[in-house]
Specification:
It comes from Chelatococcus caeni. The protein has 5 helices and 35 strands. By secondary structure, the chain is mainly β. Strand 33 (503-511) and strand 34 form a beta hairpin.
């Protein structure tokens, strides 16, 4: 997987652009170089992807690798795009575009184009668009080498210093088909990508198709919406994507994609999300790090086609684990950061502000599963969590797949349940204080909070409904937390289990026939 720290550091390394020629006069100020003019439409891009899929894959040409290898982490960090050259810096639209430079960790060039009046022309790379040291290896790259990626800056009309376009961006595309956006709390965190192929499939390497060509639609004057089309290509697949993006409280992305398979794919991951989870209050190895928690996301949320709301806390498992949540026409799923308390992290990189990302399907997605891949990690630099939709029908060579969905980059999920939600999962030694702690027994402490739990009549207690794939429960108790806000309840129980194979678990609270909370799912790894 792409190294998260490299992704973040590289994304901070560059800045801006501008234009000439065929484009509107507002783009002509800075004298960018352009290639030849060609007709463009999204339908034509789809047709191009279809034609490509009928031919053997051929990797796009790239600049000399010996030069790119010398543009290492430090050298790349010293190359900065000049804000005065930002595409759309003076309009039209609100959001200027700046570009990332190629380097050791991003060697595949992406061809950038501006579209106006149904015509597209490539923005030709030139080193003069960047500030770089006189001894930078980047000076040796040939003209027209291409860019590594791009980002949209904040609005030119903003008055909030946090959203000054010259100092802040709100969406970035960088590396393969990866992209990310900030939420309502002005922080990057997890990423999305166009496609995920063969993630954690035994005997098969994961494939990383890339956005090779990007087309920026020239926006209407003052528009608060941006539209970008991308051509995807890889050994097993080609495709076309259209992103319509809005910057508001967070970021909304409406995505239409059409994909064509060159080869059979075992695990065909659509609308994939990628995040990092090292440890949280649930399980923390003794003194592994000075910080109490480290994660970009702490759980997978599901809203099933049947209407059930599910919360599955993430794990850093002892080995790579794939979990499948079968569904038909899901209403949504996402990787969320629910824990927003700074003192739970104590880190200046602000894990408490990382965005949550929710996938809202459009149309009929049919039968399939939300699959969760959890990969062991011993550091925060690795993205070790993947969540994606995998259709039930096999992904065969020669097939076409159309998918539309909306991504919500926010502080919380956009359609939260009205039931109580799980806000903490903690594990400890089983048994009772003052007594010998029995082997093979684990204590669970779950916290639920929400309006239905605040209306429980005095003297009554909700009933925990528990299930496990194996093992037995004991010491089951539900209690309201003292000196806290109404509607905050804790459920505790012990699980006794033998062996080390994972245990699937399930819990919710009810009062009589009334369900009070979402469903907590967990995969426990005995140790």
């Amino acid at each position: 997987m792409i190294d998260r720290r490299t992704l973040l550091a590289s994304a901070a390394a560059t800045a801006g652009l501008a234009a000439t020629g065929f484009a509107p006069a507002a783009l002509a100020a800075q004298g960018l170089k352009f290639g030849n003019e060609a007709p463009f439409s999204f339908d034509a891009l789809v047709a191009r992807a279809e034609a490509m899929a009928k031919r053997p894959y051929k990797a796009p040409p790239a600049p000399p690798s010996d030069i790119l290898e010398r543009i290492d982490y430090d050298a790349h960090g010293k190359i900065r795009f000049k804000p005065d050259y930002a595409l759309f810096a003076d309009g039209p639209g609100q959001f200027p575009v700046t570009f990332f430079h190629l380097g050791r960790y991003f060697q595949s060039p992406v061809r950038m184009h501006v579209v106006a009046n149904g015509k597209a022309r490539e923005i030709v790379y030139d080193e003069r668009y960047f500030d770089m040291p006189a001894d930078s290896p980047a000076h040796e790259l040939p003209a027209g080498s291409g860019f590594a990626g791009f980002r949209f800056q904040e609005s030119r009309f903003g008055t909030d210093p946090k959203r000054d376009w010259r100092g802040n961006d709100w969406v970035a595309f960088l590396g393969a088909s990866y992209f990310r956006a900030i939420g309502a709390l002005y922080q990057y965190g997890l990423s999305a990508r166009g496609i995920a192929l063969e993630v954690a499939v035994a005997g098969k390497p994961e494939e990383f198709p890339a956005f090779t060509h990007v087309y920026f639609d020239t926006p209407a004057d003052g528009s608060d919406t941006v539209t970008v089309c991308c051509l995807l290509d890889g050994p097993s697949i080609s495709g076309a994507y259209r992103f319509v993006m809005q910057r508001g409280e967070g970021v909304l992305m409406d995505i239409d994609s059409t994909l064509f398979l060159r080869s059979d794919v075992t695990r065909f991951g659509l609308a994939p999300l990628t995040s990092m989870y090292w440890y949280s209050e649930t399980v923390k190895p003794t003194a592994v790090d000075w910080r109490p928690e480290i994660h970009d996301s702490d759980g997978l949320a599901l809203w099933t086609g049947a209407g059930e709301h599910i919360w599955r806390p993430l794990n850093n498992p002892p080995r790579t684990i794939a979990s499948a949540f079968q569904d038909e026409n899901p209403r949504g799923f996402g990787l969320l950061q629910r824990d927003r308390a700074f003192d739970h992290y104590l880190d200046g990189v602000f894990y408490d502000r990382r965005p949550s990302l929710w996938v809202e399907p459009k149309g009929d997605w049919g039968k399939g599963a939300v699959e969760l891949i959890e990969i062991p990690t011993d550091d925060e630099i690795h993205d070790n969590i993947v969540a994606m939709w995998v259709p039930r029908e096999p992904a065969k060579a020669g097939t076409r797949h159309d998918l539309s969905y909306r991504l919500h980059w926010l502080a919380d999920e956009p359609f939260p349940t009205t039931l109580g939600r799980c806000v903490a999962t903690r594990l400890g030694n089983g048994g009772q204080p003052g007594q010998p702690r029995p082997a093979g027994v684990r204590k669970f402490m779950l916290e639920f909070r929400g309006p239905p739990l605040a209306t429980i009549p005095f003297g009554e207690e909700p009933e925990p409904v528990l299930w496990a794939s194996r093992g037995s429960f004991s010491y089951i108790l539900a209690e309201a937390l003292p000196n806290d806000v109404p509607g905050h309840w804790r459920v505790q129980f012990d699980l006794t289990v033998e062996g080390t194979e994972p245990v699937e678990m399930r819990c919710f609270l009810k009062l009589g026939d009334q369900v009070l909370t979402e469903t907590w799912l967990y995969q426990y790894h005995p140790f």
